[in-house]
Specification:
Blueprint: H1 9-23, E1 29-35, H2 42-62, H3 64-75, H4 84-105, H5 109-114, H6 118-136, E2 146-152, E3 157-162, H7 164-167, H8 176-187, H9 191-209, E4 225-226
Parallel strand pairs: 1-2, 1-4
Antiparallel strand pairs: 2-3
């Protein structure tokens, strides 16, 4: 399945320019990542399919005559006797059809992501952001001033993670304003504006807590990374 294109080349240039401008005000090194999704959630899809299959088995136990009559009409064999083996085969067939049907339904991405519980989405986005942070920002600068802005589109989640020198001076809750600004723009499908707004808010916070030092150099790329 092809990954949606959220940004144009002009959008990338705007975001890179916003990062460069924000970094002029502080010693912070801002890394921006935009992800289509943070996980495949196959386990969640399997869990929903298994749940639907068990529901179907429960319905078969409550109203067996409906399924047995449906089978008779489809096969056009009214003269047979229902043996335990046939009943078990019917139950397995119903469960398999419901399981497969639910898996197929979840190939439609809007439905799949609507069925993922919010706490699971939040946890998976945080875990993916942490991995990206450790690779792209943590301890990658001389002064430990890297900071990651991570946006996961399918989950509608934003994570901001800061390296040691920033985290020691800034409470985690202070990033809430930047996250809110980004989510507000995302609700209006303005992805580039969301990232630019987040960079601007983060840059303003960094300028107060880790102001730019003489001789400061750009240690990390300003360009947005799409994954």
């Amino acid at each position: 399945m092809a990954k949606p294109k959220y940004l144009t080349e002009a959008d990338h240039e705007r975001i890179s320019a916003a990062v460069a401008e924000a970094e002029l005000l502080s010693s912070g090194e801002i890394v921006t990542i935009l992800a289509d999704r943070s996980d495949g959630y196959t386990d969640v899809a399997l869990a929903w399919s298994a749940f639907v299959a068990f529901l179907a088995l429960g319905a078969l136990a409550i109203v067996p005559d409906f399924y047995m009559g449906l089978y008779d009409r489809l096969i056009a064999d009214w003269g047979h006797e229902w043996s335990p083996r046939m009943i078990l085969s019917l139950a397995l067939g119903v469960a398999a059809i419901k399981f497969a049907g639910m898996m197929l339904l979840q190939m439609w991405q809007p439905l799949k992501f609507r069925l993922i519980p919010a706490p699971i989405r939040t946890t998976r986005v945080h875990d993916r952001a942490m991995r990206a942070y450790r690779i792209g920002a943590e301890k990658r600068t001389t002064g430990r001033t890297g900071i990651l802005i991570y946006l996961s589109m399918r989950e509608h989640r934003v994570e901001i993670l800061a390296d040691e020198a920033i985290a020691s001076k800034v409470e985690p809750g202070i990033w809430a304003d930047a996250i809110d600004a980004m989510l507000s723009a995302l609700r209006e499908d303005r992805t580039a504006d969301a990232m630019v707004a987040g960079v601007g808010k983060v840059g303003a916070i960094l300028s107060r807590h880790v102001p730019r030092l003489p001789g400061d150099v750009n240690e990390l790329p300003d360009r947005l990374i799409e994954v």
